[in-house]
């Protein structure tokens, strides 16, 4: 939630959702107050229960409001709790003040799939392994890595790949299975070439 990044996104009129640190300050009347101190001004009864339709298992209670955050501006603030009497709070912030609480939570939950995507691309598909300096070449490399990821994630749509990768869900395991499958096919072909009939 650095100022440069939020300003960059705001200038392009995109919606962002981020978790705010507990020491972030918001404006209350004429003074800057930390988020934890601000949240303590609300009673437990001000928090509402998250409906079961959201399939949210971690957080059960929320409070929503619009505030002015230091170095960010007017934001939608969502305070989350695991239990109604819990003192541990999570603060979600969005530049789109029209979002409903469940929409903010849904945006935030998508963050984990993005983290998994980056991890898989780095560990299994060579995202950070390029040794080129030209920007065009780096962009091509990134596109190829993302294309490989997309192919692996959508392998179930291809009947042939689906049979090879049956029951596999993770990208890492799919890469290992495909490497092993290709080596077995390559070994079989080399045997045929070395013993012609």
Give a summary of the structure in a few sentences.
This protein is an alpha+beta fold and 197 residues long. Helix content is 44%, strand content 19%.
What features would you describe in this structure?
The chain is an alpha+beta fold and 197 residues long. It has two domains: 3-108, no CATH class; 135-194. 44% of the residues lie in helices and 19% in strands. The protein has six helices and seven strands. The strands form two sheets. Strands 1-7-6-5-4 form a five-stranded antiparallel beta sheet. A two-stranded antiparallel sheet has the order 2-3. It is elongated, with a radius of gyration of 24 Å. The termini are far apart.
List the helices and strands and how they pair.
Blueprint: H1 3-11, E1 17-20, E2 25-28, E3 31-34, H2 35-39, E4 48-49, E5 61-69, E6 73-81, E7 90-94, H3 101-124, H4 135-153, H5 159-164, H6 171-194
Strand residue percentage:
15-25%
Tell the overall outline. elongated
Number of strands: 7
Radius of gyration: 24 Å
Task: Kindly report how far apart the N and C termini lie.
Answer: 67 Å
Biggest sheet strand order reads 1-7-6-5-4
- Provide the succession of SSEs: HEEEHEEEEHHHH
Sheet bearing the most strands, described?
5 strands, antiparallel
The residue ranges in which pLDDT falls below 50 over 5 or more consecutive positions are none
How many domains make up the 3D coordinates? 2
List keywords for this structure.
alpha+beta, 197 residues, 7 strands, 2 domains, five-stranded antiparallel beta sheet, single chain, two-stranded antiparallel ribbon
